Amino acid sequence: MAVFKCKMCGGDLEVTSKDSIATCPYCDAKQTLPRLDDNRRANLYNRANHFRRNGEYDKATALYEAILSEDPTDAEAYWSLVLCKYGVEYVEDPSGKGRIPTCNRTLYTSVFSDADYLSALEHADQNQNAIYEREAKALDGIQKNILEVSAKEEPYDIFICYKQTDGNGSRTSDSVLAQDVYLELNKAGYRTFFAGITLETVLGSEYEAHIFAALQSARVMIVVGTDPANLDAVWVKNEWSRYLTLIKDGAKKTLIVAYKDMSPYDLPEALASLQAQDMSKIGAMQDLLHGVEKVAGDTHAEQASPAFDFSVASPGVESLYRRAQLYPEDKDFDRAGSYFDKVLDVSPEYGPAYVEISP
Questions:
Q1: Could you tell me the pTM of the whole model?
Q2: CB atoms within 10 A of CB 340
Q3: Which residues contact 241 (CB under 8 A, 6 or more apart)?
Q4: How far apart are CA 33 and CA 2, in angstroms?
Q5: Would strands 254-259 and 220-225 be described as parallel, antiparallel, or unpaired?
């Protein structure tokens, strides 16, 4: 009998190799189980699930893929990859009945069409299938809500990524430097996402929707750090790694590292080869703003252009028009067209939208 950790709360479950589902005696969550042929496999799963529960999705993903390389018919490994893609975290149900999923990552792709989800269904038994389908339905509802909220968010020019508090709940030096950068960018006229201020009036359950929208629209991300450990902190890495994925997938975005009181050689490997600015040098803030201007200047200038007086447009026209302009860059012409149509629904005399949708 192997000791397997509950994938939701981490409590010990005593299961046999024949079990495909179990109920945790600690959090009362009914859950699917992997194929536990030996203690080595159980330990591998426990390690992967530990990383996933702690938000270290990339590390967890690598372990689940290693499991699948040994056994490509393990339904639970495929499902676990789905949990990593959508950043699923199980939190206590307010009703006191087990745990419910929340999402810390968002994708435009529905979980129902995800290849790993379909593979999980293919290789699962009947009891597992019922649970996978139920959880997928819950995830799909969460994702739709996130996308609905994010669609209402006005686009950002800049996203500032940083660690807000330390282990004691006190502000980090990173957050102080990040706020200085935020104030300078605001002064320069950029619409900037800075969690410490931007999310002040947002419910915690809606953070992901606003973060997702900002990551999608921002042309530049500035990763601020004064300590290598802070740059590798789970939620900081969650943001910059998602942004790098967008760049890898072809989005026209740029990531700039702004560091201080640390060596550039201590930057995480994924950030080490990118444009970086030492904020301890004289004139560093001006140099950073100049770097941002070179990357986002053209777009920023277009948005501020007096060619059309946004002040006389109906409320919402400017944000809808700016959002519509983002999609052609990602070759999403259908979504762009729908947003230009929304602009004209609000303001039929708004000329620029007619130009954009002309054949």
A1: 0.67
A2: 22
A3: 58, 270
A4: 12
A5: parallel
